[in-house]
Write a structure and sequence with these properties.
Blueprint: E1 2-10, E2 15-25, E3 30-34, H1 39-42, H2 44-54, E4 63-69, H3 81-91, E5 102-105, E6 107-108, E7 114-115, H4 120-128, E8 134-138, E9 153-156, H5 159-183, H6 203-215, E10 219-222, H7 229-235, H8 245-259, E11 270-271, H9 279-283, E12 284-285, E13 290-291, H10 293-296, E14 301-304, H11 312-316, H12 319-324, E15 326-331, E16 334-339, E17 343-348, H13 365-373, H14 377-381, E18 385-388, H15 405-419, H16 436-448, H17 453-469, H18 477-487
The protein binds zinc ion (ZN).
Zinc ion binds near residues 351, 353 and 361.
Keywords: ATP-binding, Nucleotide-binding
GO molecular function: ATP binding
Protein name: ATP-binding protein
Length: about 500
């Protein structure tokens, strides 16, 4: 007899669905697992045998062959224990045949108790995308209640509870899942607006951050030490709209796989890696494989403080995700595509001593050139907003606080709706969206400044964002003026 079950496994980069097939046939008693299991999976034979005995279940006599499909990647850990046990129970006709609606994620203890597995949220999201009816997990497996919207989960203490649950049929499962969903606990969604609302004055910088946030335009802020560029860059994330539940859960799952369970929050992630970051740390990979900072910052902000201190190779690796909003990683003949739709914000000193254009610069021309060359031209070309911060706009007691993060965020949300793209950078606006004076100015700038196609498109994109922040669909002349000034490479 053949029995099957559905589970999933985390490969370090991706969550992948695994279908378990178990065949029980007469013959010399033997229990083997094929389909690239590692030693922990192979050891599940011992756990399953003991769990059966301690749950009062007869272990099938004869030859048991378990096949884990697809067979083209290695299965690690104890995540598949419960699914293997269920497939054997189905093969032995102790449970009804698989109708493809249930999935199982738990480790088995010798006692027959279920134990939690790692990366359960990411695995559950992967299973949810396969339109399953319910997921069986260990009682002690923490899952955020939000997960129930995508895949109802049934939490069981013991193997015998799972068996009773599966026998109970869809209605009993739905009832159990509902109870579990409301009973499970999750950390409060974080709602910190940080220090943004404490920034006095700096209206130009706040506007700049709003434009970057609304249009997802990468931003580099340049200025001498102490001008507040890191503080401003850190605050950019507070202007991004809340994530939807699915994206928030996916962000939780990615961070869980990389750093251990984080706090579940609908606020977008902020990643600020140290400049010693390697290429693998930036885009993902390594051994064991892990997601990179660009994926951990997906739908949030990637802050590179002191951009020119990063290794050139690490910065060069950013070019692909900046263009494609995803990274493609190859490993052992398989490729994984990870999301990387982040907003890049970087800071830098204008020169090695940090004072060029602001005070007395002690650097030699060659040193300044070498300093800027640490960051490749193609990367800088992909950062449309490169801004020299103004010392004059330093906070003063008389200056107003200005709009709060919440107010700006609602304007930004509206702007994103106007731009018609919630998850991608706005396409440069078509000429028809510029009114006549705006179009005339744009053509003039293009001819007079001999702008490349890339730069013209960036100016158009920024102008479109500026109009959208003002609640308009039509780009006007002042929008193009402001965009051209912002795209100006300043006093470098
Ligand atoms: Zn200098």
């Amino acid at each position: 007899m053949l029995g099957t079950s559905i589970s999933a496994i985390h490969t370090g980069l991706l969550s992948e669905i695994v279908r378990v097939e178990a065949d029980v046939s007469s013959g010399f008693p033997r229990f083997s697992i094929v389909g690239l299991p590692d030693s922990a999976v192979t050891e599940s034979r011992l756990r399953i045998r003991s769990a059966f005995r301690n749950s009062g279940l007869p272990f099938p006599q004869g030859r048991i062959t378990v096949n884990l499909t697809p067979a083209n990647f290695r299965k690690r850990g104890s995540t598949l224990d419960l699914a293997i046990a269920i497939a054997i129970l189905r093969a032995a006709s102790i449970l009804p045949a698989d109708d493809g609606s249930l999935a199982f994620l738990a480790e088995l203890r010798l006692s027959g108790d279920l134990a939690p597995v790692e990366n359960a949220v990411g695995l559950a999201l992967r299973l949810a995308s396969d339109r399953l009816g319910a997921l069986f997990l260990a009682q002690s497996q923490p899952t955020p209640p939000e997960l129930a919207q995508f895949l109802p989960s049934v939490h069981c203490a013991r193997l015998s509870d799972v068996i009773a649950g599966v026998r109970g049929g869809p209605r009993a499962i739905a009832r159990a899942a509902k109870v579990a969903a409301t009973a499970s606990t999750s950390p409060e969604a974080g709602s910190t607006f940080g220090t943004f609302d404490e920034i006095v004055g700096r209206s130009a910088e706040k506007r700049l951050l709003s434009i970057a946030a609304a249009g997802r335009h990468p931003l580099l802020m340049i200025g001498p030490p102490g001008i507040g560029k890191t503080m401003l860059a850190t605050n950019l994330v507070h202007l991004l709209p809340d994530l939807d539940h699915r994206t928030a859960l996916a962000a939780y799952a990615t961070a869980d796989a990389a750093d251990g369970p984080p706090l579940l929050t609908r606020r977008p992630p902020l990643r600020a890696p140290h400049h010693s970051l390697t290429v693998a740390g930036m885009i993902g990979g390594g051994n064991p494989p892990h997601p990179g900072e660009v994926t951990l910052a997906h739908e949030g902000v990637l802050l590179l403080d002191e951009l020119f201190e990063f290794q050139r190779a690490t910065l060069d690796a950013l070019r692909e995700p900046l263009v494609n909003r995803a990274v493609h990683l190859s490993r052992a003949g398989r490729t994984a595509t990870l999301p990387a739709n982040f907003l890049l914000v970087a800071t830098a000193n204008p020169c090695p001593c940090g004072q060029r254009g602001y005070g007395e610069c002690r650097c030699l021309e060659n040193d300044v050139r070498r300093y800027w060359a640490r960051c490749s031209g193609p990367l800088l070309d992909r950062i449309p907003l490169i801004i020299y911060l103004n010392r004059e706009d330093y906070p003063a007691a008389s200056k107003s606080i200005g709009p709060t993060a919440i107010e700006l965020r609602s304007r930004i949300e509206t702007a994103r709706e106007i731009l018609g793209v919630k998850t991608h950078p706005p396409a440069a606006s078509a000429p028809s969206q510029l009114d006549a004076p705006a179009k005339a100015l744009f053509m003039q700038l293009k001819e007079r400044l001999l702008l490349s196609e890339r730069v013209s498109q960036q100016i158009l994109g920024i102008a479109h964002t500026i109009a959208a922040l003002d609640g308009r669909h039509t780009v006007q002349r002042p929008d193009v003026e402001e965009a051209a000034l912002l795209r100006n490479r300043g006093n470098s």
